[in-house]
Records
---
Amino acid sequence: MAGMTDEQLGEVYAFAVQLGKDAGNMLMDAAKARLGDAGQSGQAFTEKDSAVDIVTKTDEDVEAFIHRSISLKYPDHKFIGEETYSKGDSRDYLIGETDPTWCVDPLDGTVNYTHLFPMFCVSIAFILGGRPVIGVIYAPFLNQLFTSCRGRGAWLNDNQRLPLIRYPVPPIPEEAPSGCIFACEWGKDRQDRPDGNMYRKVESFVNMAAEIGGRQGKGGMVHGMRSLGSATLDLAYTAMGSFDIWWEGGCWEWDVAAGIAILQEAGGLVTSANPPEDPSTAEIQDVRLGSRLYLAIRPAGPSSTETGRQGQERLVREVWRRVRELDYRRPGA
Ligand code: IPD
């Protein structure tokens, strides 16, 4: 591993896992306080605090805790967190190729957290050479801890290796996207413009859902459509193999960095959400972390006619044939 021995990376991994557990417990304590368990968590809120105020405060407190812990342990490492980035002026992509960097979302699935829908988590990635090599996602309400370190596998709750179905890892179905679960997100861009991102997404969702052969041959008739409301959990569920496809535009690097680390370590593929000019021949490249456009495919085993990777690439092309191009340039770019 460039700039770090395997042993050093192992130490960073152990630190990141403990940090994820501690931060997730902070999220859950604040949630319990809202449930009326203030005595248990020791954290009380006043009547005038709105759910959104509480969530914002929790988000900021958890990020400050994570940032402080990392700075104490690794003062030379760079830190990019959702809250600190959002408050700054720059919308530039800040993850470089050289500095070891932490990329953190203290609370992914913020809307879920506000409504106490259990799909929320803390998401911590460690990046070396511009690529996420460690991922830790802890969803405390679900008691699900996803972890990975390059070369050491991807895990659920420390003891269940990902993907879940391993003996054997299923190939991509021959008729895919038929037979697949397609995960997607409505996202935050809700502009009511006929050719805006929301309408392009909805048209793409309908193409994936429609009966085979419908919509001028674009009907994919997937087995099911799902939206968790947390990009990083979407990726973790794709790493589990529970989702076959995840397609989304608009997320930032902290929404996906840990999920990408976990999915890639489990054997999944992540490329761009936007279809190239010719989906059937274009080269399939690994996604750029800051691109804001993501198409993820679950880990796949070989069939009698193709390798796992060939099956994944076939599915990428099938998705590209059915989805619209999205416009999520970085503001100012
Ligand atoms: C959001 C979630 C959501 C995705 C949005 C993200 P947040 O992150 O990951 O699933 O669709 O684009 O911003 O705000 O809950 O940290």
---
Amino acid sequence: MTAESITVRCSAKINLYLDVIRRRDDGYHDIETVFQPVTLFDIIRIEPAAGSITLTGDDPGISWDSSNLCWKAADLILGEDGEGRGVSISVRKSIPAGAGLGGGSSDAAGVLTGVNELFGLGIDGPRMMKTALEIGSDVPFFLFGSPAIGRGRGELLEKINGLDAGTILIVKPDINISTRWAFQNPNLILTRSGGGHRLNRLLGGLRGFPDIALETSNSLQEVVVGEYPEVGRILVLLEREGARLSSLSGSGSACFALYEDDTTALRVRDLMLGEGHSAWIVYPAGRALELLERE
Ligand code: C5P
């Protein structure tokens, strides 16, 4: 039965680890990554509309047209089973774009879930995942929802416990980075084999956090820092100021640092705000998407 509206809360993610293994024949790369949802949220409200898609959002820096992943998600899922139906979508943004925090992908996953629910389309998990991957490499993770290792393009997901403690500081300089540019950069060093040992050590460390030292790496960090030295300066500062773990998230430009509790995180946040960067204090989240309201 069709509801009058659905509200979905869509979280950001950070990549606690990111290894770019090899270039594939389809132009994408095989990666191995650790996705962790965090408590920075966009809110999406979806209502039925007559036969078309309308999309609005409160961030004027984002295109709210057919190039937006929310639009693409609505278009694809309505094409699946929603023949003749339309939706009106409004998005309240908190997750910055071009940051490597997966905001657009999370919103797209929220639209898929929301529209499926709104019209009771009953599209099953595997079909939803297939549609998600058509939208973008990170979208399947947000549908999957829990902390996970992502392989392939990021869509082969293995559930892990992830972080369940600690305070995370996210810092974003006023720079937007194209994921495509980072992956296509000729200076990108491919590791040519899965991380295995390094990944296992990190996963063991996450289980023992905050008692066990954590180490990570992000294959995209070197090319990003090479082009955007400000990102490098943020990473040096985060490491120097007592983070238990710090890294670039995805292809950036957001960096994150993990602390045992709020104390140091708040101090370093103020330092970063003083440098003119945007900064958020967030916490690990257990689930990426939450259906808030069905009217
Ligand atoms: O899948 P998505 O559209 O988000 O990816 C954006 C770009 O990032 C792709 O066009 C591709 O160049 C690059 N990419 C990649 N390998 C991945 C994910 C993304 O090469 N696993």
